[in-house]
Amino acid sequence: MTYNISIYHETRRIKENDKYSVKIRVYNKHENIKKVRYFTTGIDLTKKEFDTIWLNPENKKLRGSNKEIELKLKAIEKRANDEARAMSVFDFSKFESKLFRKSSDKNNIKYHFNSAIGKHTSNSKIGTAESYRYTLSSLANFTEYKKKGSIERLSFNDITVDWLKEYEKYMIVNNKSYTTVGIYTRTLRVIFNNAIEENDISVDVYPFGKNKYKIPRTRKVKKALNAIQLKTLFEAKASNENEQQAKDFWFFSYASNGMNLKDIALLRYSDFDNDKFTYYRAKTFDKSSEKTEITIYLTDFTSSIIEKYGNKKKDGFVFKIVSMSEDSETQYKKIKNFNRYINDHIKRIAKANDLPSDCSFYWARHSFATNSIRKGATMEFISEALNHSDLNVTKNYFAGFEDVAKKEFANSLLDF
After folding, report:
1. Which parts of the sequence belong to the Tyr recombinase domain (predicted)?
2. How far is residue 67's CA from residue 53's CA, in Å, rounded to a whole number?
């Protein structure tokens, strides 16, 4: 055991009530590093009161309020030791968060969701935090629908295999897709895993896995424009500056290996080196200890887009989508709004040119992959270009290979 917990009377500083704070003293020694932290108990005592109640040198039988304070301090000390013992490796920040929560929080779904949301927000993962909020809201709606308590009291024990099957049925009946069900239940599974890792719940209540609830998996065909449609969109005349800007950024993504809008928005001039620029994909950066740098070679087209929309001072971010002075939450909202703006105007161009009406900015990424395949690129090349961590992810693009190409291939089989 690397830690020691005790009740401590902070007599170095007297308070306005002429008493001193009673605190939890935690001494931790780990890898030859010694640290001491103090946590308030909310109890103030004089020296005489502390000696009588806690040190009790004469072993007196306490009564009344003194007895209540003694029992309260013993309960706090016991809880502190219990929480410390539950951690495989003692950590002050985790210990503090557990010490001051309600005893019921360890089994409470909403508490663990809010903890995850707070963690992702503090790590500037605003989109991930928002995804957790959507899941929590959906679970709250289902809990109200069942008319058995509320999300405030929903515990891990309540969420059984039958509960999840009923939730899935509720979602489908309310016109939600199996894809959405999969996203929300996978997020819930992460919350279960977090609670188990924190030793807040037993693995016995885990409702996912073999012979338990199976999270629905769907293979969504990636939407992409074929070669003819790409040529049509590229040559389409924009009816105003907004449409032109939307088209320019759409094709900048396409010509930059399907670069995500967030990565475009956060691209810096310091990322450039002569005829190329490099960046780390924001979406996957924290998912792997091995960071993969993506290199994009400039073309006449991509260079012209940078010249047209780039920051003329040539410092900080290349494009004026977000600014360096903004916090991550403001940047997230601006990128989301810019994505909505591009999608709105791309759809207008698509409609005017008999292209798929649901064409969006993300189609640029899929179109890059699909048309690279059509030109003979290997799965490994596509996987590296898109910065996929798993070839199975890349296979989805091959599965969505345009029907025209499949027909051409089938008709060519007898061309000996």
Report:
1. 220-414
2. 7
Closest CA to 276 of 297, 252, 301: 297
Q: Tell which residue, 178, 210, 180, 234, has the closest CA to residue 353.
A: 234
Fold category of 227-412 in CATH? hpI Integrase; Chain A (1.10.443)
CA distance 269 to 407: 44
Q: Which strand (E) or helix (H) includes residue 217?
A: none
Q: Which residues of the chain have pLDDT under 70?
A: 1, 30-33, 57-59, 148, 219-222, 284-291, 389-416
CA-to-CA distance for 224 and 359, rounded, in angstroms? 8
CB 111 within 8 A of CB 97: no
Return d(Cα 316, Cα 237) in angstroms, integer: 32
Task: Report the relative pairing of strands 276-280 and 293-297 from DSSP bridges.
Answer: antiparallel
**pTM listed for this prediction:** 0.71
Residue 161's contacts (CB-CB under 8 Å, 6 or more residues apart) are 207, 212, 213
Beta bridge partners of 6: 25
Which amino acid makes up residue 224? A
Please state, in angstroms and as integers, the Cα–Cα distance from residue 142 to each residue in 179, 327, 359, following that order.
17, 34, 33
Q: What is the pLDDT of residue 22?
A: 95
Tokens of 192: 């279960």
> Which candidate, 344, 359, 364, 371, places its Cα nearest to that of 228?
371
CA distance to 81, 150, 213, 378, per residue, from 131 (Å) = 35, 20, 21, 33
